[in-house]
Amino acid sequence: MKSATILIVGAGFSGSVVASELASAGRRVHIIDKRSHVAGNAYDEYDEYGVLVHRYGPHIFHTNAERIFEYLSRFTEWLPYEHRVRGVVDGVPYPFPINRVTLNQLYGLDLDEVGAAEFFERVREPREPVITSEDVVLNSVGRDLYEKFFLNYTRKQWGLDPSELKAGVAARIPVRTNTDDRYFTDTFQAMPLHGYTKMFEAMLDHPNITVELGVDFANVRDRAGYGHVVYTGPIDAYFDYCYGPLPYRSLRFEHEHLPAIEQYQEVGTVNYPNDHAYTRITEFKHLTGQQHAGTSIVREYPQAEGDPYYPVPRAENEALFKRYEELAKREANVTFVGRLAQYRYYNMDQVVGAALAAAKRLTG
Ligand SMILES: Cc1cc2nc3c(=O)[nH]c(=O)nc-3n(C[C@H](O)[C@H](O)[C@H](O)COP(=O)(O)OP(=O)(O)OC[C@H]3O[C@@H](n4cnc5c(N)ncnc54)[C@H](O)[C@@H]3O)c2cc1C
């Protein structure tokens, strides 16, 4: 006989939000994760030197959705934080995304806002239609800026040329004629005051929720009896890769502690589009506001193999996903939600929204 307990696979944002919502609605929930911790890719912890670091790369919370911000505020207080990024070109760090200061510094100009707009108009290479990421960037900033800031970064990040990637990838990065050097311009930009992991622990702290870590779904899927399964792992893995694996881009994170250096770089993240095998360096103390005599940084090395991080946005991959999605629709009593199950480039706020919607469907 089926038990009333719902099994949730994955204790990242999608699984934990669904767990919390179902538990609040009076349902019993058992949540598993194959990793040894909750919080999925947003997991943070103090390293052995006492600095709070993000194990799976920098996670900066930003959203325009007040509803999502308020929802998460049930589980954490916040530290206001606006992320800033520099892109190093020929050894010089410039504001990134490209803004007026970037142009003035790079080309020795003194443009005002109108001048910057005219500059872009002069150098852009109009493309019609705009289909690829190359089209997006050339169409807005022209070839020189494309080659300096985007081309090699994209090649490193995705292992593909921008001309091989859908427009959406580059369209995420704005170009500005003002001097706003914040990476995001969302209404709500903040970090969980005591870190993401603490926020997840609060989310899962409910008498109706049991958590089991270090357990792979593959080893329990035959364990009979769950009334329903909410699956947030990779959709192709769920179906035993029957149509072949969905391509993902992975990363290797190289964490380093610098004992006697209070600040390593002037902003949270510095991009290296044209140098090194890594794409960027993030210094965590900028993000967390932590005071410490030393500092901890992470370098990100993109790679094809490893944990699935970024769905690769190409038309043929989406077509393959659609085939898996058809199978998922026919899978009775299983809900597929999250970045891996929906093969979608979700930010944290978006995945919270998707999980809240899924929970609402389940609770009626
Ligand atoms: C390097 C990097 C930086 C990012 N930076 C930002 C940022 O700055 N801002 C932002 O908004 N978003 C950012 N994101 C996106 C953010 O990580 C995701 O939106 C979020 O983690 C998605 O949550 P999820 O629950 O869908 O997936 P995940 O966090 O991946 O959680 C899925 C969980 O399922 C578990 N799982 C998978 N398969 C199984 C199985 N078979 N059995 C048991 N457990 C399983 C996994 O171990 C994992 O813990 C970033 C992502 C990456 C990779």
Automatic annotation (TrEMBL):
One of its GO terms (molecular function) is UDP-galactopyranose mutase activity. It is an enzyme of class 5 (isomerase). Residues 148-345 form the UDP-galactopyranose mutase C-terminal domain. The keyword tRNA-binding does not apply. Keywords: FAD, Flavoprotein, Isomerase. It holds the Pfam family NAD_binding_8. SUPFAM superfamilies: FAD-linked reductases, C-terminal domain, Nucleotide-binding domain. The keyword Isomerase applies. Signal peptide: none annotated. Its EC number is 5.4.99.9. InterPro entries: UDP-GALP_mutase, UDP-GalPyranose_mutase_C. Its cofactor is FAD. Belongs to the UDP-galactopyranose/dTDP-fucopyranose mutase family. This is UDP-galactopyranose mutase. It comes from Rhodanobacter terrae. The gene is glf.
